[in-house]
Amino acid sequence: MEPQSPAKNDFTARRGSKGLLRVWQWTDDPRVSIRERINASGGLGYRVTLPKGVTGGRVIFVQSRDFEDAKAVARAKGLEFRESRSTALVLSDEKKIQAARAVKILSEKGLAVGLDEAANHYADAANALLPFNVSVSEGAKQLAEIMAIVAPTGKPLRQVVELAVARLCPQGGTKSLSELAKEMVEMKRGWLARGDLRDASFRDFMSRANKIADEIGSLALPEVTKEMLFEWLQGLSLTRRSKKNYRMVLAEMLRYAAQKRFISANPLEEFTRQDIKEIEGNSSEMRQPSILSPSEASKLLDAAFSNPDLDLGAAVVLGLFGGIRTEEIKRLQWDAVRLDDESPFVVIGPEIAKKRRIRNVPLPACAIAWLQRWKHAKTGPVARSAHTNDFQKRFKKLCAAAKIKWESNAMRHSFGSYHFALYANSLETARILGHKGDDNVLFAHYRALTSKEQGATYFGILPPSEGKVIAFPAKSVG
After folding, report:
1. pTM
2. pLDDT, tens digit, for every residue of 156-169?
3. pLDDT for the residue 299
4. In whole angstroms, what is the distance from residue 334 CA to residue 381 CA?
5. Which of 6, 179, 260, 429 has its CA 20 to 30 A from that of 18?
């Protein structure tokens, strides 16, 4: 271990005999002194004094509990002022005038700091801002503006800035809304190829995603705000349902973006119920869903069985008395229709159920009677569909033959309305319809006001008695 160097002895005692508190003077400049002092707790301390003659301004006092520390402070401050005075002696008149102006400016601004202190602050600030090519004045203005913006949050400026950076510079990288739409369309195209997504679902998503990309796709994902999405959705000249569909596609896209870390927060999650009502309208103000009267349902059945070449008899029975979706009926095979069971039912399996909500649909007596009278082979598809629009075209001909005005989902809405009216069990009706969880969707979209008597009449529609013959013309309705 190396021996420590002896402490520098450059302070001489000026007094300190006969019990008096001692005083030392710096040998390099006797005006700089150190005095013993009794502090408030009764202990011994030391005060360094630099008088006006040294500082050129106000007297400076520095307190210390350690004598060697006090001497170090006295030397450092003494040298600092000595160097400053030496520099001042060689200043040109122009520099002296500049210094005087600087002192005047500080005084006018009410800044109670010395010129040297102000110069040190300025130099530190200028060096800190140099890499960003921002002047001290501009940097101070920007900082003040930012602090005013941050103040209402009650959070430290650094924390707010870190949150903003996390949002604007997502971990997954920056993509535009258009690039996100393209990525998701290709991803879903892969699902379609593997059989994990239906063609109709893929085409619907692609159509809506492409419209979003065309109209607001240039926006970078971190810059997308709730206000932007609200304005775009509200400006769509579409029905309430179509606006909701676009909102749901956006929600799926932005959830995916959040999972991939393209955004740190999903702006759609900021939508309140009131926001959605302003965009889509109040659902409570919507009219009741259109349903068929028992008489119209009977006409539709008679037309379907009188025109077997349309191959829609079984489809109409399952729609009217099972509430099965048209898209599910179009994919349904006869082996899923269990007519020979003790309690006949239809299996809606994962390969055809919307959103894979599998279920068994019980068949009421009227449905069983009609299906047993259907003369087509009970193998293969329940309702043929040669191409995408084939089913719709044949159904349009059927409605013309029945002389009824058709509205979308009328069979499914009719089933939901009459089934609930007859059995007064909303959860069971919703389960048969394949609604998720509760009966909210039933009451919001699938139920019109009907009576129990009307329900009994509807589910009492039976085919002609065995003694009567249903005429099957050779040609379908053209």
Report:
1. 0.48
2. 888 877 777 666 66
3. 94
4. 6
5. 6
Q: CA–CA separation, 459 vs 422, rounded Å?
A: 9
The percent of residues in the chain predicted with pLDDT above 70, rounded, is: 86
- The values of phi and psi at residue 424, to 5°, are 55, 35
In tens, the pLDDT along 303-357 reads 999 999 999 999 999 999 999 988 888 888 999 999 989 999 999 888 777 665 6
pLDDT tier for residue 470 given thresholds of 50, 70 and 90: very low
Whether the pLDDT of residue 85 is over 80: the answer is no
For residue 39, what are the CA distances in angstroms to 23, 32, 43, 284? 16, 21, 5, 78
Count the Cβ atoms, other than its own, within 10 Å of residue 352.
20
